[in-house]
Amino acid sequence: MRYLLEALNAGSMRAAGDRLNVAPSSISRQIGQLESQYGLALIEKGRRGVRLTHAGEIVIAHYRNQIADREALHAKLEELRSVRTGQVTAAIGEGFAGKSFTSLVSKFAEANPQIRLEILTGSTQEILRMIADDEAHFGLVFSTPNDMKIHVRSVIAQPLMAIMLPNHPLAAKASVSIAELAGEALVLPPAHFRIRQILSVAEANSKTFFQPAITSNSIHILQDAVRAGIAVAILPQISVWSELSEGTMVSVPIADDAIEETTTSLVLRSGRQLEGAPLRLLKRIEAQLRQWNKPIRH
């Protein structure tokens, strides 16, 4: 089963062989033995890449559950020994990688020096793929996914806001419209990010389309552009929570129903049971989500 999973992840027998340092023929032979054992084809024949049949998908799902169960067993035994060790891989949207989240992770690392942390960033689709493929224990994404492979552990309302300096002309308004924002210099994430996809619906509804002055997939560049006073960002409050709390930036609601209903979700693979270090960090983030669910008023 390991060879089948490696072939799937690598995309070909040859690439899987290179990863495992074995001949591609050995990969094919092992998969063939599995197919003989189960009496069903596990991969589609005649394709250049590796694509699973329905039976292959069932076998891979079973194998991934076995791996997760072994990991959970190991974590439980380590907990019994009171050894605070382990490894945690979390995947988050770039928009969450601000000072507030960084502070949370730093405090966790300081309190648990023997736990190895890996924090990955990506688009919502990339994160959901990492979760489904067990490349990350859990993820934090903007909006709530509708995917049977993904379990939503926690969800909070987190509408997009116009983020600006306190002395900006729009800062004192109760809300701003899409048309008003279109007249401002904007700094926004790329079009394939979930934030932009949500904004595109609002733009279409209002028949007003943004032409951002700056586009970047880095939350730090978005924050710096606002901090320098050269642009207005459109982000959830969670992305600039520390700056809002300190009063160095303000958030103004955007008057659009689609934007007001957006959410942030803490997710993991359906059926996966976390234990030990991954569960400890997940619960810490879950507690922080409850704090982030309290809007900051400017």
From TrEMBL:
Coiled coil: none annotated. Residues 1-53 form the HTH lysR-type domain. GO terms for molecular function: DNA binding; DNA-binding transcription factor activity. Pfam families: HTH_1 (PF00126), LysR_substrate (PF03466). One of its GO terms (cellular component) is cytosol. Keywords: DNA-binding, Transcription, Transcription regulation. Belongs to the LysR transcriptional regulatory family. This is LysR family transcriptional regulator. It comes from Sphingomonas sanxanigenens DSM 19645 = NX02.
